[in-house]
Write a structure and sequence with these properties.
- This protein is an alpha/beta fold.
- The radius of gyration is 19 Å and the shape is globular.
- The chain has 2 domains: about 10-115 and about 290-310, ATPase, nucleotide binding domain (Nucleotidyltransferase, domain 5), CATH 3.30.420.40; about 130-285, 2-Layer Sandwich (Nucleotidyltransferase, domain 5), CATH 3.30.420.40.
- The protein is built from 9 helices and 12 strands.
- The chain is about 40% helix and about 20% strand.
- The chain has helices at about 45-60, 95-105, 115-125, 185-190, 190-200, 210-215, 220-245, 260-275, 290-310; strands spanning about 10-15, 15-25, 30-35, 65-70, 75, 80-85, 110, 130-140, 140-150, 150, 250, 280-285.
- The chain binds zinc ion.
- Zinc ion binds near residues 176, 180 and 183.
Amino acid sequence: MSDVVGCAVGVDIGGTKTVAALVDAGGGIIGRAVEATPGSDGPDAILATVLRLVRAVADGTRPRGVGVGSAGVIDHRSGVVLSATSVLRDWAGTPVRERLSDMTGLPVRVVNDVHAHALGEAWAGAAAGAESVLMIAVGTGVGASFVRSGEVWFGAHDVAGHLGHIPAAAAEGRPCVCGRTGHLEAVAAGPAICALYAERTGRTVTDVQEIVRCAAAGSAEAAGVLAEGGRALGAAVGGAINLLDPEVVVVGGGVVGAGELWWAPMESALRDQLLPTTAGIRVVRSKLGSDAALAGAARLVLDADRKMKERH
Ligand SMILES: [Zn+2]
């Protein structure tokens, strides 16, 4: 049996697919495997999928453990899912850490997927070398994560980073998935931008990329809704920068794929909010893409392994 020195398995459990990768001590991805997430089949099926993927990528190696980034609110100490989207049926309440540890015989850590993404970018991606990082993920939802000295700020109730659920002026009166109204996610997430476009044009779209194509073909409404979504996000992130004063801000997620029509108004609205001393802050695109969550999840177990050795 070969021993890839200091490697760990990173797993990213998303609403549609689950990916596992063997990650080396420098954050490099050695090999990966992917399957559709059997979300509607419940926790047993999801965990069985994770186990297959872990075995596939760890075959013949001795990983230090398994780090998991999952959709939902996760108790990062116990690894129990506190709440989750209905796409993952009965996922809330699942003791993921305990069950995967029993199944694999390895140490397991579990965090929310945006936190895993942030750890990956802070370790080996767009924010490598920065002391503090604010990661923003904007896709189906709007999430954030604050990493300082390589450690995620989870908050007292594991809810830190829910940027999508702060009030946003542009979202006033619009219902949010959380049940309240006027939250950022109701105007800045991908589905919200699509809904706004449908309201304005009567054309149903399911993907922000369709709106980008319409904008490229000269649609002022299409360019307009991309800019509005970008500005709403940027204003909120600017406020968050004033609160946290990170060294660098990394923005990732599917909506960033909309390109300059979205990015330029986003960054402009962000900088409009900044206090003078933070005016030069670096705001950059995610570098590792979906690999960031895999690297970040693996980093969690490598860190835990190192700390345990230091104590002994
Ligand atoms: Zn909300």
